[in-house]
Amino acid sequence: MNIGILGLGLIGGSLGLDLRSQGHHVLGVSRRESTCQRAIALGCVDEASVNMSLLAKAEVVFICTPLGLIIPTFEQLISHLPSNAVVTDVGSVKTPIVQAIAPLWDNFVGGHPMAGTADSGIEAAIPNLFAKNPYVLTPLATTSPTAITVVEKIVHDLGATLYHCSPEEHDKAVSLISHLPVMVSASLITACMNETDANVLQLAQKFASSGFRDTSRVGGGNPELGVMMARYNRQALLNSLQRYRHQLDELINLIEQEDWVTLEQQLQSTHNARPEFVD
Ligand code: NAP
């Protein structure tokens, strides 16, 4: 198949590596000429250009630009595409994207691969990024069944685990397990930074080990991505943050009351529940 990738960074580049290894002909479009050349050199694409007209021969296009650019990029892309081309995106938030694009293109299927690394840009592209990770599709009742089947087949061949849900359900779920953790982890780092005793702060920095590494990882990631999550998934994230604040208040209460029995019951229930989210 001729598959177009618009936005050659971590996700777009990684996708290109896997699609080419399966024998697809990959056409890449990115903003910078240097990125296009690098994508060819790294084997992420067969052809690359800064001009969207390269995608006129694409049967399927993956939009992999930063989140805030997906809708304007699609609006520019339309005039270059054959009317039967299937379009999908990889954006981490689905409702605003699906609401804007689906009415304009029956062959549009919203998507979100739940995979990534701390790095970005074409140099960060790696093979098999999606294998064994969830890949969520958010088609609507109006989405062309043929387009859904085409995207499902590609996702299946990436070795990813396919899920379907509505854009709204997707955004609520990722606000809990992806966007809330970024804000919680960032707050943890800020709380530590706000220690006013310079000696204690220095000791904390020296003593920090695996526990702090795990809990601070997502809060110390790409700031742009965090702002995008808050901006485009604002209401769901606010609901999750409020739920979290309530939980913190409950914990403070238990500790102030020295209610160790209830605290242990709570920690036992989180100990039991964690494997239902991650192994
Ligand atoms: P990234 O590494 O920064 O890649 C995005 C690429 O898009 C950049 O390398 C840039 O390439 C290109 N670009 C920027 N503006 C463009 C434009 N106007 N036209 C064409 N290309 C443009 O970001 P990413 O992590 O791959 O994320 C891309 C998308 O994947 C986002 O929508 C994000 O929500 C989603 N996503 C990310 C992750 C993750 O963990 N990172 C996971 C799942 C989904 P140039 O060098 O040419 O400027």
In short:
This protein is α/β, with parallel strands linked by helices.
Q: Can you characterise this structure?
A:
With 279 residues, the chain is α/β, with parallel strands linked by helices. The protein is 50% helix and 12% strand. The chain has two domains: 2-165, NAD(P)-binding Rossmann-like Domain (Rossmann fold, 3-Layer(aba) Sandwich), CATH 3.40.50; 169-276, 6-phosphogluconate dehydrogenase C-terminal fold (Orthogonal Bundle), CATH 1.10.3660.10. The protein has helices at 10-21, 33-41, 70-77, 95-101, 145-157, 167-193, 198-207, 210-216, 223-232, 234-256, 260-273, and strands spanning 2-6, 25-29, 47-49, 60-63, 86-89, 108-109, 111-113, 134-137, 161-164. It has a six-stranded parallel β-sheet with strand order 3-2-1-4-5-6, sandwiched between helices. A three-stranded mixed β-sheet has the order 7-8-9, with helices on one face. Helix 6 (167-193) crosses helix 10 and helix 9 packs across helix 10 (234-256). The longest helix is centred in the middle third of the chain and has 27 residues, at 167-193. Residues 6-12, 30-32, 35, 64-67, 69-70, 73, 90-92, 112-113, 116, 120-122 line the site of NADP nicotinamide-adenine-dinucleotide phosphate.
